[in-house]
Specification:
Blueprint: H1 2-42, E1 44-56, E2 59-70, H2 73-94, E3 101-103, E4 107-115, E5 118-136, H3 139-146, E6 158-167, H4 171-194, E7 201-209, E8 213-216, E9 227-228, E10 234-247
Parallel strand pairs: 8-9
Antiparallel strand pairs: 1-10, 2-5, 2-6, 3-5, 4-5, 7-10, 8-10
Length: 248
């Protein structure tokens, strides 16, 4: 009877050892798998890619600002209307289509007389100002007009600054193209970085688009918030992408 009990106790001990060894072995396999998985998960590389493209504005606008001083409201509005018509005729003669000409609202405010260092309640004169805006797909024509607005002075028109804008109509399409090229550039840089280790670049994990810089053709200016140049007909569009790739 005692021998049977000893055999059973021995079997229990052996069984317990087997279970323990199995648990240890399973834990080792599981731990190794976790480490391998984490290693795979952590094998990534982040790079910054960029791409640029030279573009030319395909339409432009010019805003001719004009102003005057008048002794009263009636005289002021009459002269402003006459000046607006003269500016319109000037633009049409230069080659602008009438449908591409718009007129701004006329604004005015009174200027009171001064006596010494004091301003009285009596009106001295009225200041008027407004603008005429023209748009054209002929970019060179807008440039020519901007350079010849001084002739308006001979027409008794007091002009202020002339705001000229050179714009690109398909800018959104260009941005999409530049993002793709910048991402490709980021991958090429990543491949160059891991080339010496024998590793290869895998799939794209994540990508974050940076700001766009639209600058004059010879400009090197960049800002954290991006630039959208409208002062030059010749431009560079620059895109930046921060990308993370897996390493295999």
């Amino acid at each position: 009877m005692g021998e049977i009990k000893a055999i059973k106790d021995y079997q229990i001990v052996v069984f317990g050892v087997i279970i323990a060894l199995g648990a240890i072995f399973s834990t080792a396999i599981f731990t190794k798998s976790v480490i391998k998985y984490q290693k795979m998960q952590n094998q990534t590389i982040s790079t910054t890619g960029s791409a640029s493209k030279s573009v030319k504005a395909d339409f432009a606008t010019i805003t001719i600002n004009y102003r005057l001083n008048a002794p009263n409201i009636k005289t002021g509005y009459k002269k402003m209307a006459s000046d607006a018509q003269k500016i319109k005729n000037f633009l049409v003669q230069k080659g602008i289509d009438e449908k591409d000409i718009t007129f701004g609202q006329i604004s005015n405010y009174e200027v009171n007389k001064r006596v010494g260092n004091y301003t009285t309640n009596e009106v001295d004169f009225y200041k008027f100002n407004s603008y005429v805006k023209a748009t054209s797909k002929n970019v060179d024509l807008i440039t020519e007009i901007a350079n010849s607005t001084t002739s308006l002075v001979d027409m008794d028109i007091e002009t202020g600054y002339n705001d000229v804008e050179y714009l690109v109509s398909n800018l959104d399409d260009i941005k999409i193209e530049m993002v793709g090229k910048a991402t490709q550039n980021a991958k090429q840089r990543a491949e160059s970085m891991v080339k010496s280790t024998g590793d290869k670049i895998g799939s794209l994990n994540s990508a974050k688009m940076g700001v766009f810089q639209i600058v004059p053709i010879n400009s090197t200016e960049v800002t954290d918030y991006g630039i959208n140049d409208t002062t030059s007909p010749e431009k560079n569009v620059i895109a930046v992408v921060n990308a993370t790739f897996t390493v295999k």
